[in-house]
Design brief:
The chain has a four-stranded antiparallel beta sheet with strand order 1-2-15-14, with no helix packed on it. Helices cover 0% and strands 48% of the residues. It starts with a strand and ends with a strand. It is mostly beta strands and 166 residues long. It has no helices and 15 strands.
């Protein structure tokens, strides 16, 4: 199932690397230049990084949202609820659609943009990493790690290397 992936540990960060090559890793937190998206207290916020006031803009409230991330191209936002449901919204917080219920119970499992596919989200449940299609909610296992992961996750622009913090 691991399809040629390798595992390395660097300063508390687990790097899952294809072909044993370590490349600079670019995080998935802000593909819309100058903006960060995040979920907290059942709400989704946008924060303009370059703003001197650093006042977050609430763009969505409801569904017990726990975490949020940009899609690979920044055209959508993916969010996971406290109950483990994954949603997709426009990047302004409108048009929320339910993608899938992961069956996770609590949303302590992270999500991240799935690169290079704008229509998918990267999700980890325990030791297993999944690509979830926003179109039909299909969960495709792409990797099984050696332990469970609850920290941040990201995938590089080519979709071949994953970083996870446990």
């Amino acid at each position: 199932m691991n399809k040629g992936w390798s595992i390395c540990r660097v300063q508390g960060l687990l790097l899952i690397i294809q072909a044993c090559l370590l490349y600079p890793f670019h995080g998935a937190s802000a593909p819309v230049e100058g903006w960060i998206v995040y979920g907290s207290n059942a709400k989704i916020f946008l924060l303009e990084v370059s703003s001197s006031q650093h006042q977050p803009q609430e763009i969505y409230s409801g569904n017990n949202i726990e975490h949020a991330c940009w899609s690979a191209e920044g055209t959508h936002i993916y969010a996971i609820s406290e109950g483990g449901s994954i949603y997709r919204l426009e990047n302004d917080g409108s048009n929320i659609t339910h993608v899938v219920n992961t069956g996770a119970g609590l949303a302590r499992n992270p999500i991240a943009a799935y690169r290079p596919h704008n229509d998918s989200v990267l999700y980890v449940k325990g030791r297993d990493f999944y690509r979830i299609s926003a179109g039909d909610g299909t969960m495709t296992k792409i990797f099984t790690g050696q332990r469970g992961y609850l920290g941040e996750i990201a995938i590089d622009n080519s979709g071949t290397r994953i970083a996870a913090r446990d």
